[in-house]
Amino acid sequence: MQAVAPSSALAPRWFRTIDRSLRLTIMALSGMLFVLMVLFTVYTIVMRYVFRDPPFWGDTVSLFCNLGLVFMSYSLAVRDREEISSEALHTLLPDFGVTILVYAWQVMTVLFGLFLAWFGLEAALTVPGQYWELGGLPKMAPMLALPLCGVLTAVAGTFSITEQLLGWSAELPTEPEAAPGPSEHLLG
User: Fold this and answer.
1) Facing residues of 137 across strands?
2) Tally of helices (H runs) and strands (E runs) in the chain
3) What does the radius of gyration of the chain's CA atoms come to, in whole angstroms?
4) Alpha-carbon gap, residue 77 to 105, rounded angstroms
5) DSSP track, 140-158
6) What is the pLDDT of residues 102-139, one digit of tens each?
7) Which residue from 32, 35, 31, 41 is spatially nearest to 63, judged by alpha carbons?
8) C-alpha dihedral sign at 136, 139, 145, 148
9) Mind listing the pLDDT tens digit for each residue in 25-77?
10) Cβ proximity of 44 and 62 under 8 Å
11) What is the pTM of this model?
């Protein structure tokens, strides 16, 4: 992604506030889901192999935590432009081609997020049945992770494209580079 112009201006305060709030919320929820997944898995394993009395709901709840974690974390990868991309082609293309490829990939990611939101909501609302092991929890409840992931992915991709097109940076500038001292002039 080197061919795309680097961000030079600090993004407006409202953009940075929304971006930071979404990132922190997603990271907190992802972290919580990761901890819960590990705890449920360890609990289920201990109960299964030590006490020979495994909970019948342990694997299901652990799976839900895992799916929610993966779906939510994908939007962070999209926002940071770290999703799997076509970067192997970048060495074969001129800078302008790389720029077009990067933007095309980002637009496709936003469209995928919208697709996931729309059809994920439809799937969640129409999925029949319930989880007997979770007290009759409708299957719709865990399926709502699909539209949530879709919305978060579309928002993250849109923020990424906006930031890149307008030359903004949502990151606060790091400390300025110090001017080289006299000894560095001699060594360099």
Assistant:
1) 131
2) 6, 4
3) 22
4) 13
5) HHHHTHHHHHHHHHHHHHH
6) 899 999 999 999 999 999 999 999 999 999 989 999 99
7) 41
8) negative
9) 999 999 999 999 999 999 999 999 999 999 999 999 999 999 999 999 999 99
10) yes
11) 0.80
First and final CA of the chain: distance in angstroms? 29
Tokens 């933007």 map to which residue?
Answer: 103
DSSP 11-44: PPHHHHHHHHHHHHHHHHHHHHHHHHHHHHHHHH
* Calpha distance 122→99 (Å, rounded): 35
Residue for token digits 């906006």? 162
Report residue 129: phi and psi, to 5°: 100, 180
CA 40 centroid distance within chain: 23
- The conformation of residue 110, written as its DSSP 8-state character, comes to H
